[in-house]
Write a structure and sequence with these properties.
Blueprint: E1 5-12, H1 19-29, E2 35-42, H2 49-55, E3 59-62, H3 68-77, E4 83-87, E5 91-93, H4 95-110, E6 114-117, H5 128-137, E7 149-153, H6 154-160, H7 171-181, E8 185-188, E9 194-196, H8 203-213, H9 221-226, H10 228-249, H11 252-275, H12 281-308
């Protein structure tokens, strides 16, 4: 498909443990007739990220102290393709992706106001978080395309003004909403199969991930009102405050009992609302536990916002 150029933009910071395999997956699975370029936008790495990128044939530019949205925009600025693939360093392309991409490029060439991509699959692993949270997330329908694996056209990218650079997280959802306002269409394509190897596998890593993802939820009152995640955090805070009041006014045990009776009900309701009714009670219990860690992470986002206010 000589008439179609594909630019692959990968933002990176200290990704030496991941980037090499990502670039290898591109080289291995990209259709031979697809002319493409790979651009790695480095955000001040102190490891071998830049050296690895260059050794694999990628173009490298440096943009220190930039948001991930800014990194992606910087990559597009020096790219030459009419079609752009945004990809994270911990994402792997698959054989099925390679078999699908030619048709996708042709479709985008004919329909330049489309955003496509797919939810990244989870590696085969019995890890608690991969099995009971992230693998179930891939089974849900999505209203946007995650920028860890997003494909669109330069025409649409320019039309919406790229990613909003002052956003720390949520820039992909925002990009999709801007595109819809310009007549864009979001189409998920499960044939574009990818694997995400960078999911957190420990409690602390999971909490920190959600803490970072929740940054935009509490940035403005408008964001708070529009965010379901912020609402969940605020409801939990209300339950905590009520528990403390009962603890103080009635008795310590009353407050403790109130909290530990209401929380399982709250968490199980959230879990069923998010993932549907589980097949086994063990799934409900374990996923509810992870949801509790999720709330902790998002709550820390709120506290970070409060502390950062002048």
């Amino acid at each position: 498909m000589t008439e179609t150029d594909l630019s692959i933009i990968i933002p990176a910071k200290n990704e030496s443990s991941e980037l090499g395999e990502a670039l290898d997956s591109i080289a291995h699975h990209m259709a031979n007739h697809v002319h493409h370029e790979v651009i790695v936008v480095d955000n001040g790495s102190t490891d071998d990220t830049v050296a690895i990128a260059k050794s694999k044939g990628a173009k490298v530019i440096s943009r220190e102290k930039s948001t991930i949205a800014g990194l992606r925009n910087a990559g597009v600025e020096i790219s030459h393709g009419n079609i752009i693939l945004f990809m994270d360093a911990d994402v792997r392309l698959t054989k099925k992706w390679g078999e699908t991409i030619s048709d996708v490029l042709k479709f985008l060439h004919e329909n330049p106001r489309v955003i496509t991509g797919s939810r990244c699959l989870v590696p085969e692993d019995d890890n608690l978080f991969l099995k009971y949270w992230f693998s179930r997330m891939t089974q849900k329908n999505s209203t946007y395309i995650n920028s860890g694996h997003m494909i669109t056209t330069r025409k649409l990218f320019d039309l919406v003004g790229g990613f909003t650079e002052n956003m720390i997280t949520g820039e992909d959802y925002n990009f999709g909403q801007k595109a819809l306002l310009q007549g864009g269409i979001i189409i998920e394509n499960n044939g574009l199969q990818t694997i995400h190897t960078g999911y957190p596998k420990t409690c602390s890593a999971f909490i920190n991930r959600e803490r970072w993802h929740g940054t935009e939820d509490f940035r403005t009152w408008k964001n708070i009102c529009a965010s379901r995640e912020a609402t969940i955090v605020l409801v939990h805070i209300i339950l905590v405050v009520l528990s403390i009041l009962i603890f103080s006014v009635r008795s310590p045990w009353s407050g403790i009992i109130f909290y530990f009776l209401t929380m399982p009900l709250f968490l199980s309701t959230l879990t069923i609302a998010k993932f549907g009714k589980p097949l086994r009670p063990s799934y409900l219990i374990l996923t509810s536990f992870i949801f509790y860690l999720y709330i902790i992470g998002r709550s820390l986002s709120l506290f970070d916002r409060i502390r950062s206010r002048p």
